[in-house]
Structures are given as structure tokens and as C-alpha cells.
Specification:
mainly beta; globular; six-stranded antiparallel beta barrel; 115 residues; Thrombin, subunit H
Amino acid sequence: MPEIPWNEKRRTERIKINQPIPVHYELRPHGKYGDTVIQDISEGGIKIILDEFVPRLCRMAIQLNLFPERTTSAFCKISWLQNIPKSYRYQAGLEFIDISLEGRSEIAEYVKLHK
């Protein structure tokens, strides 16, 4: 296992996304929803762009298509949120908190294929 730098809090290796992977999300319990793209992914979570501020620890249901004709669904919590400089948008780190074994396997497969 690679050594994790002292300032890196992730427990799993992340990879940058080179081609856009759309993700549909719904904020819980607010009922707000939207679409965005993934910036990076790991077996533990994803980083996305949001158009509005969302409180840390807020819950979010997501659906993404890492592979053609396969949809992966998960429940996440917002671990961190950061304003993008000179923009009205935010970067958000989402941690998977409830995901099926099949969904976890698909994410692991995607990460392995794109290292």
C-alpha cells in the first residue's frame, strides 16, 4: 500500500477524471436536486462541483454512470466544501456512506482501470 502524506486525509487512492462523468444528485432532506460532473474519484468518495453552498455533513443521494449502461447509486455525506476562487461555484468532497457491494465493486474496477 502506498504511503499516505501526513496532510492527506483520504484512506483510498483517488484518480483525476479526464473525461466528464455526469452525476445526478439529490440533497437530503432538502429535496433539491441537480446534475454536475465528477472531478476525481476513489473507492471512498468523489469530488464534484456545486452551484450553491451546501452545509458540511449534509446527506446526498447520487447516481453516476462509470460504465455504459450501468448506473451506480450511493448515499454520501459532504465531507468538505470550498469556494472556487473568483467564481460563484463550490468544490465538494463527498464520502460514500451507503453503497451496495456491486456499486463499490464498480468504483474499484473503474479506479483500477484508470490508474
